[in-house]
Amino acid sequence: xxxSHHVAQRIARFWGxxxxxxxxxxxxxxxxxxxxxxxxxxxxxxLGALAPYKRVDLAVEAFRRTGQLLxxxxxxxxxxxxxxxxxxxxxxxxxxPDADVPELYRGxxxxxxxxxxxxxxxxxxxxxxxxxxxxxxxxxxxxxxxxETGVFFETPMPAALVEALxxxxxxxxxxxxxxxxxxxxxxSEERFRAAVQLKIKALLAGRTELRDRLPW
Length: 216
Known about the structure:
Blueprint: H1 5-15, H2 28-31, E1 43-47, H3 56-66, E2 70-73, H4 79-83, E3 90-94, H5 101-107, E4 108-113, H6 122-128, E5 133-136, H7 141-144, E6 150-153, H8 158-174, H9 177-184, H10 189-203, H11 208-211
Parallel strand pairs: 1-2, 1-4, 2-3, 4-5, 5-6
Helix pairs in contact: 3-8, 6-9
């Protein structure tokens, strides 16, 4: 099993094997306990571990050019890039307590997701919170976001993100938080659990000595 079609394609390329895809779930209760909001905090949000492939450097440079407000939540290896100095419109919150993360999503105009990831749970957390996403059009983001719930940019370059931010101004006026939430609900824990159980049962169809010991 693979957690995205993006990963399944890599499995096929390197190992010559087919893989069924079961997308990971998002904690809908944690990020949707209140009604959807309109990003009243006025900031864009980058959230995650500061690993090089997540491209916080790309986000910082793009927002340096636009002057829009960007909040960065997270810590890690690429924290060294942020300690070297940030433009006044970029705020580094460092690691945010888990209890504060849902409200951070809810206050954001959009999540900025500039890296290529195997799946990427942060975009779904944003959608579950009723917020849109601005994402690089690569990897798992292509499997979780739709034209109604996010804005894509094609190349991992600051100029491409700057252009996407310009397009976001018009997108934001027609954005529906309820539609974002509905998209996130397609990745519920219930659907994930049912898909995994179905796969296990199929694998054990001819193994009665193991199948009969399943707890469900």
